[in-house]
Amino acid sequence: GAEEPGMEAEAQELPLGCGGEGGSPAAGRSPEGDERRDPSQASVSNGGEAESGKELVELKVIWNKNKYDVKFCLDSTGAELKQKIHSLTGLPPAMQKVMFKGLLPEEKTLREIKVTNGAKIMVVGSTINDVLAVNTPKEAAQQEVKAEENKKEPLCRQKQHRKVLDKGKPDDVMPSVKGERLPTVPLSGMYNKSGGKVRLTFKLEQDQLWIGTKERTEKLPMGSIKNVVSEPIEGHEDYHMMAFQLGPTEASYYWVYWVPTQYVDAIKDTVLGKWQYF
Fold it and tell me: What are the start and end residues of every segment in region (Disordered) (predicted)?
């Protein structure tokens, strides 16, 4: 057994490139070892094959301006090489594009695609962290989308409205009954966004909407109101929360809570001028 030291040295080198096949401690044992241990016999013969059949090839793996010198089994497949590249670069095989005279086939061995010593293997791909770093702007965009979605959340669940609605229904709220004509008397018993009492008076002859609070009455020309939005109050569907848009943006909404449902359409039609053509 004079050549044994050589065997051991080679068996030791194998794990570098061959993923440890044949590199088990048993591989270095002499064949005259314990006959009864079949597993060790098997690994001894593997070790033998590793020496004779498994040539190592030296590769230069180049990824992102980094160069790696790698010894790898000629009879390993492209897929196994990708695993090796993963261990070197942290780049998951699924994210790797490995090039050797074109795209490296995963199922073929390096011998089959005629990889020789000193061959350059180019790797293209980004690690998860690189991808995340690039995608941060996208995350900002997603947050904007979320903000949009939050707007779509029922208005009565949004914080600014909750604080008024949580006060409950005003004692003197007008009864909600079916029918949709404008009330001839001022519509009272509602709250504005600060939770103060508010009443609405429709002065059709002056084409004005009067919004009255304890402090003062705003007299708004109907034509100055850009939009009217409303949504039923959850759990009290016979009442709505309604906003009159007094300026160019949503920031100018004047919110009124607890508008009896039967008046909602008539208010919108009156304010937005549906009837003026008749």
Answer: 1-51
- Helices 38-53 + 4-17 axis angle, to 10: 80
User: Quick check: pTM over 0.85?
Assistant: no
Rounded CA-CA distance 109/111 in Å is 5
Count the residues in the chain.
278
- Does residue 175 contact residue 241 with C-beta atoms inside 8 Å? no
DSSP per-residue string spanning 24-93: SGGGGS-TTS-TT-HHHHHHHHHHHHHHHH--EEEEEEEETTEEEEEEEETTSBHHHHHHHHHHHH---G
| Terminal-residue alpha carbon distance, the chain | 114
Q: Quick: pLDDT tens for 80-122.
A: 999 999 998 888 888 888 999 888 888 999 999 899 899 999 9
Kindly report, residue by residue over 71-88, the tens digit of the pLDDT.
999 899 999 999 999 998
Taking domain 159-277, whether its CATH number is 2.30.29.30 is answered by: yes
Determine whether domain 56-127 maps to CATH 3.10.20.90. Answer: yes
- Pairing relation of β-strands 56-63 and 119-124? parallel
